[in-house]
Design goal:
Elements: H1 2-20, H2 29-39, H3 51-78, H4 85-118, E1 135-149, E2 152-163, E3 169-170, E4 174-182, E5 188-196, E6 205-212, E7 220-224
Antiparallel strand pairs: 1-2, 2-6, 3-4, 4-5, 4-7
Helix pairs in contact: 2-3, 2-4, 3-4
Length: 226
């Protein structure tokens, strides 16, 4: 009889612990990854394959984690009073550490997924918008992915073009070259600028290495010295 009482006591304690956790292990990144994968469809982007969907899934998983831990912190703080202030503070710090560790787990999972997807994209060319007045030949090639931490990152492109005329200079020698990202409907969705300390004559090659792609709504790139 005593043994049964002990077993029932242990079982009740276990059930109580599960209830406190809402039946979900807050420290397990797999829960949030699984939920994000259910909520965000894995689609094929015309230029960037699965990478944009993986980026969205990573952001969603981190948002779900943030919401869950915020709710737990709020519940802990709601019980705070003068008698348990130190205990509440310690619990909040514990939840902060849990979130940090789980976020790293989520980021590592998607870093691996994105790196795998990038293997099929590296070397792929991005179409260039024709501009015969500025360049006679141009090329933009996907070369990798830059993970920036915190669930952020960008596809990286190396580009080059052969000037069809002498490019404009700023002052006596500086040349400002810019690029525009163009969306599927023809609108500009982003841009970038780089300065060179030498002029470029007609027929010279201009190299623009390590350009980061700012958005997924991209179908082409163009170059200018305006």
């Amino acid at each position: 009889m005593r043994r049964n009482v002990i077993i029932m006591t242990v079982l009740a304690a276990a059930l109580g612990l599960a209830a406190c956790n809402g039946g979900k292990d807050a420290a397990s990144g797999s829960n949030y990854i699984s939920e994000a994968e259910q909520q965000v469809a894995l689609e094929q982007h015309p230029l960037f394959g699965e990478v944009p969907s993986l980026q969205k899934r990573q952001a969603k998983a981190l948002d779900l984690l943030d919401d869950a831990l915020d709710a737990e912190r709020d519940a802990v703080r709601a019980k705070a009073d003068n008698d348990n202030y130190e205990e509440v503070t310690a619990k909040v710090k514990e939840l902060d550490a849990e979130q940090e560790a789980t976020a790293k787990e989520i980021e590592q999972y998607f870093t691996t997924k994105i790196d795998e997807a990038m293997k099929g994209l590296t070397g792929k060319e991005i179409p260039v918008e024709p501009d015969a007045k500025t360049y006679s030949a141009a090329k933009a090639t996907i070369v990798g992915y830059k993970h920036a931490g915190g669930g952020n990152g960008n596809i990286v492109v190396n580009a080059s073009f052969t000037a069809a005329r002498q490019l404009k200079t700023l002052g006596s020698k500086y040349t400002q070259v810019s690029w525009n990202w163009i969306g599927a409907s023809g609108e500009r969705t982003g841009s970038g600028i780089r300065q060179f300390d030498t002029p470029f004559e007609s027929g010279e090659e201009v190299k623009l290495d390590s350009i980061t792609v700012p958005d997924i709504d991209i179908s082409k790139i163009s170059f200018t010295d305006d």
